[in-house]
Design brief:
The chain is α/β, with parallel strands linked by helices. It contains 14 helices and eight strands.
């Protein structure tokens, strides 16, 4: 890993959550690249079964195994794992009860779906358990296999319950392997080596969910990481022009003169009216974003730009660099 100081020295598990539509999977992938830069080895884990990681890195759908998906800047590697709940449960049965054959038979009968439906907490225990195992795993030389793990986690509204598996385990078992496994998982999640990052847009609902999620998570004793503001749009007008546009007071005659000077003389008046309306909308959007940004008092906060041309692999590397520049990795 790079010798550069970061906000998260000593952290090995980065959990990334956010309201749906905020781009949390994209941010998780960018963070994995950022953490791997300079020679690190990072595992990016998906727990929701959407194959979003494969789409971002432009690779075929991921099987239930750890596969290399990217080379990080200045060396380093990113591996990815899409956790399959059924396969993870079979592993769980084999690990604690030596029941792999029984697990496969249960899968054919559809019993696993039934079990995880009537005891949904078990599913979360299995998923978080697989991730915590990756955090603890060591090579033969006793070094950790991965320098960091990044989990693309469930949305903000579910994150506290998802991670606080000790409550779910208490409902499932008071003693025995299930309880012991849950305690081991929580020893990782509640340790200083785990933080939860929140991804948000500068809109009222995502910001409010982020603030509520931070409050709820702190009550569980799980460490909050950073807030990552995604898709922030830059102001394209001066503060004075923004204020005038917001009041509907832009000088349209001046806009007409500018259009004509640019060679757009025909229908310049109509174009000027359209541009003035777009400027007013931009001013309103900018004011909204500034107001919502002021509500985010949690530190550290990282700002990622809006990418008007959409997301591709090159853009993912750009976002990773932006996170590194701001001290996230």
């Amino acid at each position: 890993m790079s010798a550069k100081d970061t906000h998260w020295d000593g952290v090995r598990l980065h959990v990334v959550t956010g309201k749906g539509g905020t781009g949390k999977t994209t941010v998780a992938a960018a963070l994995a690249l950022a953490l791997a830069a300079g020679g690190g080895k990072v595992l990016l884990v998906e727990v929701e079964g959407r194959q979003g990681i494969a789409q971002l890195f432009d690779v075929p759908p991921l099987p239930y195994e750890e596969r290399k998906v990217a080379v990080a800047p200045d060396g380093g590697e990113v591996f990815a794992l899409a956790i399959d709940t059924e396969e993870a449960l079979i592993e769980y049965l084999e690990m604690f009860y030596n029941l792999r054959r029984a697990g496969k038979a249960l899968t054919k009968l559809g019993v696993i779906d039934f079990v995880t439906t009537i005891a949904p907490g078990l599913r979360d225990v299995i998923l978080t358990g697989k991730v915590s195992e990756s955090v603890r795993r060591r090579e033969k030389n006793n070094k950790f296999k991965y320098d960091a793990i990044v989990m693309d986690a469930p949305p903000t509204g579910r994150i506290s319950k998802f991670l606080n598996v000790s409550d779910e385990v208490s409902n499932l078992a008071k003693v025995g392997p299930v309880r012991n496994h849950g305690d081991l998982v929580m020893s990782v999640i509640r340790s200083p080596q785990t933080v939860v990052h929140f991804v948000t847009l500068l809109e009222e609902m995502p910001v409010q969910e982020t603030l509520d999620g931070i409050h709820d998570l702190k009550e569980t004793g799980i460490s909050v990481g950073g807030v990552i503001v995604n898709m922030e749009r830059p102001a394209v007008l001066t503060p004075e022009d923004l204020a005038a546009a917001g009041r509907g007071e832009l000088d349209q005659d001046e806009i007409v003169r500018g259009l004509k000077a640019s060679g757009l003389e025909q229908n310049a008046g109509e174009y000027a009216a359209v541009l003035a309306a777009e400027a007013a909308e931009h001013a309103q959007r900018t004011a909204l974003e500034q107001r919502e940004k002021a509500r985010i008092t949690h530190e550290p906060r990282y700002d990622l730009p809006f990418l008007p041309d959409g997301m591709d692999l090159a853009c993912l590397y750009d976002l990773a660099q932006a996170l590194r520049d701001q001290g996230a990795a």
